[in-house]
Amino acid sequence: MNFSKTLIAWYLQNKRSLPWRETTNPYFIWLSEIILQQTRVAQGKPYYDAFLQHFPTVQDLAFATEQDVLKLWQGLGYYSRARNLHATAKYIVQELEGQFPNNYNNLLSLKGVGEYTAAAIASFAYNEPVAVVDGNVFRVLSRIYGLELDISEVKTKKEFQKLAQELLPIDNAALFNQAIMEFGALQCVPKSPNCSICVFQNNCYAFQKKKVDVLPVKSKKIKIAHRYFYYLVLRDAANHFVVSKREEKGIWHNLYEFTLLEYDQKPFLKEVVAHIQEQYPAKEIILKNEKELLHKLSHQHLHIHFIEVSLNTKIENAISMEKMLQLPMPIVIHNFIAANYL
């Protein structure tokens, strides 16, 4: 089996037309790779287009405010990606005279750029022969070559990297890397792949051994924490709202939110209301969603209620709806505002 030749032939027939594949500009490629970490192409592409419209060069991104960058990122999640993106743009402009590193090893020095992202940029922008290894590559290689190694273990990554590097055609690194990732995204998908039309059917270990559903092997389970958020939508006599920036490290760092009451366990609603009545001279308290809103993050589930607290007086530092909508905020809060106040 000539794996790389078969794979590339499949890719040239089946690949999606995506803008970051039509360029060798390292800024465009880096931007797309950061956006597509933890994000599907269909969701990420509008953000890619929006970022290039607002920040067509790395210099434009570097000179933007973090608030503008976070606002444009709103809804993509994993906001540390946006903060790293902005910090790296400033580093490239201020320390590297606006020039991207042009090889794998130097790309690794950029904040937010790990081995996979460095390999992707190096191969796509400079055709450097470094194989990419991501979730798609783990899945494709484990199934076709029968690698029954636990991909949650660090040592396993080295085995997959070694095999991918051996399969990589030295003079066609960019095409091969695009092809193997696309094959994993479109054909060798995680659940119920259509093996009947697969070009590797006759050579696929997992298909022949009926192990498609169990490869790749991944033993570690993510432990999910549960947090109970009660957002107080403080609304004053001038119809202005109170929001504040989350400055502690953790989820939604530097995004804006309503006044938050957080609990480790689900409280009785009357306890929450009693607390509100103690703290605020409320003329009206309204539970805006009786059914909790479940917002799932990678390692935690947020159980969210919104409670509108109307006051007879004006509140210092409260802001208008128009100003509030200009601030970057978690998408769950943005959607709540859009559904209830716009």
TrEMBL record:
One of its GO terms (biological process) is base-excision repair. Its cofactor is [4Fe-4S] cluster. InterPro entries: A/G_AdeGlyc_MutY (IPR005760), DNA_glycosylase (IPR011257), HhH-GPD_domain (IPR003265), HhH_base_excis_C (IPR023170), HhH_motif (IPR000445), MIG/MutY (IPR044298), MutY_C (IPR029119), NUDIX_hydrolase-like_dom_sf (IPR015797). Binds 1 [4Fe-4S] cluster. It catalyses: Hydrolyzes free adenine bases from 7,8-dihydro-8-oxoguanine:adenine mismatched double-stranded DNA, leaving an apurinic site. Its EC number is 3.2.2.31. Gene3D superfamilies: Helix-hairpin-Helix base-excision DNA repair enzymes (C-terminal), Hypothetical protein, domain 2, Nucleoside Triphosphate Pyrophosphohydrolase. Belongs to the Nth/MutY family. This is Adenine DNA glycosylase. It comes from Flavobacterium profundi.
